[in-house]
Amino acid sequence: MKGRTLGADRLAVSALGLGCMGMSEFYGDANEAESISVIHRALDAGCVFLDTADMYGPFVNEELVGRAIAGRRDEVVLATKFGVQRGSDGSRLGINGSPEYVRAACEASLRRLGVDHIDLYYQHRVDPGVPVEDTVGAMSELVNAGKVVHLGLSEAGPETIRRAHAIHPIAALQTEYSLWSRDPEDEILPTVRELGIGFVAYSPLGRGFLTGRFQTIEDLAEDDFRRHSPRFQGENFLRNLDLVARVRDIASEKGCTPAQLAIAWLLHQGEDIVPIPGTKRLAYLEENLPAVDLELSDMDLARIDELAPKGAAAGDRYADMSSVNR
User: Fold this and answer.
1) Phi/psi of residue 71, each to 5°?
2) 3-state helix, strand, coil in the chain (%, to 5)
3) Dihedral angle computed from the Cα positions of residues 62, 68, 69 and 70, in that order, rounded to the nearest 10 degrees
4) Which of 91, 181, 188, 288 has the most C-beta neighbours closer than 10 Å?
5) What is the pLDDT of residue 213?
6) Rounded distance, CA 253 to CA 249, Å?
7) In the chain, where does DSSP find H-type helix?
8) pLDDT for residue 27
9) Which of 122, 138, 172, 157 is CA-nearest to residue 9?
């Protein structure tokens, strides 16, 4: 597995990470034994950058990751997040960036993960009621205490990124980025590149849509949250199928799968970009791994840009976009 670095302090990660969210929630039923097998196979393949969050499950995803990496901690670059506060019953309690919550959330994550430090600790969403300087100041205290090594932000806007980075170096910004979510190219990517911050791309396969596996909404489980995503509904679904068909045609010409093409396209957008496709299935992990070695020529990239331009996807990323890019 090839490597990349994030931020001015050059946090070394694998060029491809593994998103663990779906192993516990959101995408229908999951099998813990297979999920742990996926994590072990990823580590064996050198895909050592694991991404979780306290709100996934809630809480149980960190516990699952902790069990999976027990005895292998030194192999792992471990990232988790705080800030989207949930109750033990799964209820949504809002966004919390208060210094007191930062400290309490970190202690809870360390306990669930079974580790003594977190390699990359993100503020999951920006709290509009707490100055980001206060939140990042508390995160910085965690670095000084040795509980966290590097700091990150997720779905933050350019001004917030600058203000946070002025308090403590930010190693990575995590935001959705893919062939159907190219809006970071407008302001976010230029900002983080100016500041020397790495970019971690979540949902690089468009929440699975770009794989071509979904042809109707009925292909999703009844409890799959994507059923409520604007891009998976009605006319948007049909329009987005056209985008997938164009991606599939190029992939066929390249002798790869649509998923491999979508990941490779992201990797070719810059050495500072690290995609973290999530999966709970061994077969999908095995499909994703070869994307790291897929070469795309300038002509390939130009053609992809022509057939899947910025703004090509129909519908918003979330039903409620109010908590992103603040």
Assistant:
1) 85, -5
2) 45, 20, 40
3) 100
4) 288
5) 84
6) 6
7) 32-44, 60-69, 99-113, 132-144, 158-167, 188-195, 234-254, 258-267, 282-288, 298-307
8) 66
9) 172
C-alpha dist (Å) from residue 37 to 23, 70, 202: 11, 13, 21
Q: What are phi and psi of 148, to 5 degrees?
A: -135, 145
- Rounded Cα gap, residues 226 and 203, in angstroms: 12
Q: Could you give the residue numbers annotated as active site?
A: 56
Q: How far is CA 257 from CA 103, 268, 316, 324, in A?
A: 43, 16, 26, 30
In the chain, the amino acid numbered 132 is V
For the entire predicted model, the pTM comes to 0.94
Q: What pLDDT is recorded for position 219?
A: 79
In this predicted model, what pLDDT tens digit does every residue of 29-50 receive, in sequence order? 779 999 999 999 999 999 999 9
Per-residue confidence (pLDDT) for residue 98, from 0 to 100: 98
User: In sequence order, what DSSP letters do the residues of 290-318 get, joined into one string?
Assistant: GGGG----HHHHHHHHHHS-TT-S-S-SS
Compute φ and ψ for 166, nearest 5 degrees: -70, -20
Q: Is the pLDDT of residue 218 over 90?
A: no
Q: How many helices (H) and strands (E) does the chain have?
A: 10, 12
**Is pLDDT above 80 for 324?**
no
Q: How far is residue 165's CA from residue 153's CA, in Å, rounded to a whole number?
A: 10
Q: Residue 11: what pLDDT?
A: 98
Q: Which residues make Cβ contacts (< 8 Å) with residue 144, sequence separation at least 6?
A: none
What percent of the chain has pLDDT above 70? 98
Element (H, E) at 81: strand 77-82
The CA-CA-CA angle for residues 213, 50, 325, to 5°, reads 75
Compute the C-alpha angle 60/66/71, nearest 5°. Answer: 160
